[in-house]
Design brief:
Chains A, B, C, D, E, F: Homohexameric ring arranged as a trimer of dimers. Six copies of one chain form a homohexamer. Helices cover 31% and strands 30% of the residues of chain A. Chain A is of the alpha+beta class and 239 residues long. Chains in contact: A-B, A-F, B-C, C-D, D-E, E-F.
Chain lengths: 239, 239, 239, 239, 239, 239
């Protein structure tokens, strides 16, 4: 088996996380998984949605978008079509759940964090890149809130990162780019904490159904890849 | 550990599938997983969406809805709010992918199958009940199409069924009802083929992250539960 | 003249009203006029719309929908089209006005009743079946509110029921099913109180205009039919 | 009983119909029922909606709107709210059905007539004024189409006109203005042909239910009023 | 050069402003620039939008619409299409900005003025006619508010009027009608105060780019034309 | 007078145009006017909109968007609000008109060019930066189309660039950043061709009206600034 990308099965693409990528947001990161490039910002606003009012807790919500020509063919702009598609809603719900798992909301105070992940260039794995990058922007945003005295403690429970794995020509591979993803039999997105637990596991058989042992092989590959991503996050945040 | 429902950890709720539930659709089923009740219809129309035209293949697409008072609190009607929510879109995409896995589209001819799953009463597990019930309606619809001479062979590759599993007070349990689902630490939806492969595996940690061995225990439970569902589908279709 | 249904001109279809059809709503009924089947729920919520705030009065509002394949041909789901059609809005306005006529709002307290009529299977007369069935669900819902101590007296002023009549091949007939309705020259929907007054009279000439004497003959037929419906409502509520 | 308007019970408001009110439309009329003023245009376009293609028949469809400050309180503009309300849709469906009753579609050729009724100033009875005025614009539009050689005969089967009647302080009155309408117990809109048949009868009890004899008294009053409207239409068209 | 309209280059069309055109609005005007006819109403409501609350200042906002057959070809009704087009939004923003320039908001009190400009018949220059006519309706509305004691002084800082100019066959012309506008190389809309300053200058090269000296010639023509419009406004308001 | 930015009145911000910024689009540029950063892509698709079919001509259309946190305060995402705002539509119409002025559509062949300008970071002047940057992406896209043999000649008639000017504390200044723009009395956007003609001139008095001589001073400043921008475009394209 040879990957279209030429990478070894367990090899991540070159990953880059650039902090303070834009100026206005409390946290702002450009994350690159190879040719996949996503701007992740975290914006803090005082106040919480109605269903949380008066409970002394905070909230985090996420939105996801792609520039129309982030992809090989131009896709219609969702703002001009007048609605977000099912894929967009599915992804932004995943990002929101994943990052909420990183936080202790009772220490966030009555603040809302808006995570915006906007894909500038897509080459597979945009949702997992978004989670991994937004996690860094989230840490930066919490530091800003702390300086403002807006927190009731340290809301950061754990780090979160994500990667995709798949079965390609019968073998598990890590961090699929678009050509690999298009041909893979199975596609699995995995979100983990730095303590080694799973937050989300979403696997889909595109062609043939997958077997328990294939699932386990993919999860092992994902676990290893995410461990590398945690190191990278730590290194970037240490700068 | 005692389940709120009083069931044993590996015990399904009483499942009932009533065929020919309504009169107009090519396939029409009422599926009940305990108090969860869903009407599943399959409607066949000649022709395919534009992206498939001229390829001699068919298509299947799914939509999902809940009656406003299917739930404990009345929810705003999506038709009057003017858009389907993210949860709805996510579920109907899952149903569509799952049922497409049952079919060989090249034998369906240029026909489109519309699967509609409408929840009359919700008590947890509506998406997995929808898939399991709609599979039966799909078989009935194919029989109607066959009689009409609209098929190019037998499009049915395999049966598909689905169930939810979770971790409740540290233990894996099968087929969660709403009170169990609300308190579970982890929620996992599993879609399988009758040959024993996975079509979809979607797990979410609601509270604590889950570990690989917990995932495997849940998958084993799901595999056993789905086996029972396949027997039930077969028995119902044999009538 | 022979009706397609084989019924006598003044003969209703078999009518069935099943109370407590679903579990969550304050009132919940399945109403069947022959093959027309509608789920009617009444949901009570504390509070009133803004235009009524502070007046000590309650409110009732209605919504109507059809499952996509309730009809012979599948109709696009209004939730996914992003708007309710004119027919839907017209019918739900009619249901709301009709049921409000049954109530003394000043005794309802500051509560809002949401009536949802969802057609599972359509065979003509869905709006009149909805009104007749929802009236029973409304009585049940009021009993629940009374037990909760949420009322300021008995808001039930009078019972309301509805039926369709028409001119078919020159003769007035009662309670048209779909094939009769499609061929009728005139279609008239009548809503009455159990004291014998009219709440709504909506007649439309589909083909030839109708004459005053035809209108009176249809109204007489409707009056008789609705009297039977009131007996049926009473019998069902007495159980 | 004294009407707020000071009119006798059977007395219409001053009615004026101004033809060729605007320049572009095939038919264009300003209709005034007292202070109610509506611009009615009829626009002809070659072609028919998809469901009629290839049948050699024409079609007529109607739309209705109010300028935001046509009423005592400004109402939000439907174009900026992003949807037409239920009342609007109900009225434009009524106008469309009423005017289609005037035409033999098989003689219209494959043309579509768009009737637009836009209320400039509202003082009760806008829907019946719209129908009565649009009928005149329709005759003018047919004359234009005839000159263009676009017709397959004379599509005009009969004239149509409409008026509202009601029960006010226990007595039937004709052609209610807004203050009368607000206080009436019953409101009845009647559409008739010049041959004396009913096209639409839509009665609603706003307060007390109405009795058959009240309905008949109202219909008699409407019949007389509409007869006057037909004379007026004829006089205006003769100019 | 001969204008299609036969007018001299610096000649306005016949302008008419009819006050109190409809009955309900605080200010209501029919403005006619030749065959262009627009109803302008100004509606006053107590209260201001949220972003202004508690500042003791008022607000003015504008909306613009066209009747579907105001134009040579019928245009789809924006209310039924479900959104206002870009041209509509652009024009109503221009009208709002222009009329706000006439007012000292701090003297308006916490009132909101809604300006509605609805084009009954279009023949070029609808936006500039709207501004010029709405200005008169605004003065009338302020007089009503003054009588009600709702003002904190005289909010009227200055009068505002607008006209279009263009380059037609190489020469600047004033107040273009539709045929002239369609053929003009450049189209320039100018809004001025009666003290002679510019509020808005919006020029677009439809064909060839325009030169500074052409711009200045057009501005001179506009200045002269707007001076005539101010005289006309004054005369109308003096009646 | 001292500009908040410290720049001389006639001084542009540092301008940077980075070609080939993303990989998929036929033309793709990152344009920076100081802290204002916009991604401009040009996508080519075969075919034209319906109103142009069969004329052998091409078309260019533009869309504009801002990332939610491109600004100081996070703005709601237009895709999730379900409609583009008036400002967005106004700007994208301006961009489209400006770039169409650069092209001879008859030489473009039946191709449509989609220009997408997405603001990553806003600091004033986003619309003029968009036009200036998209012009470069357009040239690159035309080169790609030429290589593909999709053109019928060279469609590039002239270069186009744009800048904003304003009156700040009584003096004309060039290329306003956000703090300058917020305080300026007048804001003028100017689009020119490299032959020195005006394509668009859009001036708005935010505070005091502006005088003809102020307008001329601003235009002179804009002309000089745009000349620098043309040099910059040329230099960038020469690389």
């Amino acid at each position: 088996m040879k990957r279209p990308s030429g990478r070894a099965p367990h090899q991540l693409r070159p990953i880059r996380i650039t902090r303070n990528y834009t100026r206005h947001a409390e946290g702002s990161v450009l994350v690159e998984f190879g040719d996949t490039r996503v701007i992740c910002t975290v914006s803090a606003e005082a106040g919480v949605p109605r269903f949380l009012k008066g409970q002394g807790k905070g909230w985090l919500t996420a939105e996801y978008g792609m520039l129309p020509r982030a992809t090989g063919e131009r896709m219609a702009r969702e703002a001009s079509r007048g609605r977000q598609g099912g894929r967009t809603l599915e992804i932004q719900r995943l990002i929101g759940r994943s990052l909420r798992a990183a936080l202790d909301m009772s220490k966030l105070g009555e603040n809302t964090l808006y995570v915006d992940c906007d894909v500038i260039q897509a080459d597979g794995g945009t949702r997992t890149a978004s989670i991994t990058g937004a996690m860094v922007a989230l840490v930066d945003a919490l530091a800003v809130l702390k300086k403002r005295g807006a927190l009731k403690g340290d809301p950061l429970k754990q780090m979160v990162a994500a990667v995709s794995v798949g079965i390609y020509q019968g073998e598990p591979i890590l961090d699929l780019d678009y050509p690999e993803d298009s041909d893979a039999e199975t596609d699995l997105n995995v979100v983990m904490t730095d303590a080694g637990g799973f937050i989300e596991v979403q696997g889909t058989a595109e062609g043939e159904p997958f077997q328990p042992e294939e699932l386990n092989a993919m999860l092992a590959l994902a676990t290893q890849g995410i461990r590398e991503l945690f190191e990278l996050q730590r290194a970037v945040l240490a700068d």
